[in-house]
């Protein structure tokens, strides 16, 4: 009996998709100016974001909204509203919560009087899917800028953050927003740890 259970477990693991390796890389500049800084203002940017196989988010939204409205009048409009509202309601709070938890004294938030601002620019979103028997994890790519708050054109550092994975423990993330929310949580945690390492 135990042998059968082990065989089934290995078969299940083999069927799972490979883990996504999140990667953060400093593209230019330095994080050294952040030494001694305890707070960063934060801004989010979703302009010029591609989604799934669509180069432009607008094309993705148009297709999904039309498909949902075809199934049920008004469903696509409600879905589009949720897609946009999830940013401020779910994604951004999750990013900040995890960054601040692992930032070792460096916190991000709405601090417009602080010297530096972290701009989190999402460049790609893979919404993923979960239909019980099959799933594809969400993930996001982003460009992270550290700029002078009073002089936004002055870039202190530019980083790339690729393949931040989004899925919940146990895999019960049937809601698109929930999967993407977890990608922002993972990004916040990873970026905070990277900043802690590079600043010390």
Helix and strand topology:
Blueprint: H1 2-15, E1 23-29, E2 39-45, E3 50-51, H2 57-71, H3 75-102, E4 107-109, E5 116-126, E6 129-130, E7 135-136, E8 138-148, E9 151-166, H4 176-199
Parallel strand pairs: 2-4, 2-5, 3-5
Antiparallel strand pairs: 1-9, 5-8, 6-7, 8-9
Helix pairs in contact: 2-3, 3-4
List keywords for this structure.
200 residues, alpha/beta, 7-stranded mixed beta sheet, 4 helices, 40% helix, 30% strand, disordered N terminus
Question: Portion of residues in helices?
Answer: 40-55%
Count of alpha and pi helical runs:
4
- Indicate the structural class: alpha/beta
CA-atom Rg in angstroms: 19 Å
Poorly predicted sequence stretches spanning 5 or more consecutive residues: 1-20, 169-174
Relative strand content: 25-35%
- Described by the principal axes of the CA atoms, the overall outline is elongated
Distance between the termini: 52 Å
Structure description:
By secondary structure, the protein is α/β, with parallel strands linked by helices. The protein has one domain. Helix content is 40%, strand content 30%. The chain contains four helices and nine strands. Strands 1, 2, 3, 4, 5, 8 and 9 form a seven-stranded mixed sheet that branches. The chain is elongated. The termini are far apart.
In summary, what is this structure?
With 200 residues, the protein is of the alpha/beta class. The protein has one domain.
């Amino acid at each position: 009996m135990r042998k059968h259970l082990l065989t089934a477990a290995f078969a299940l693991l083999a069927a799972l998709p490979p883990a996504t390796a999140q990667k953060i890389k400093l593209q230019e500049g330095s994080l050294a100016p952040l030494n001694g800084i305890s707070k960063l203002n934060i801004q989010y940017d979703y302009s010029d974001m591609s989604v799934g196989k669509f180069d432009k988010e607008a094309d993705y939204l148009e297709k999904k909204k039309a498909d949902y409205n075809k199934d049920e009048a008004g469903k696509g409009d409600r879905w589009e509203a949720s897609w946009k509202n999830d940013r401020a309601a779910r994604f951004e709070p999750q990013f900040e919560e995890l960054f601040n938890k692992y930032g070792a004294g460096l916190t991000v938030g709405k601090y417009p009087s602080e010297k530096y601002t972290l701009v989190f620019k999402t460049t790609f979103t893979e919404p993923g899917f979960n239909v019980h028997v099959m799933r594809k994890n969400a993930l996001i790519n982003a460009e992270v800028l550290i700029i002078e708050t009073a002089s936004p054109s002055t870039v202190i550092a530019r980083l790339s953050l690729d393949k931040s994975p989004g899925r919940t423990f146990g895999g019960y993330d049937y809601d698109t927003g929930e999967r993407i929310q977890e990608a922002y949580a993972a990004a916040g945690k990873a970026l905070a740890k990277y900043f802690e390492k590079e600043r010390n």
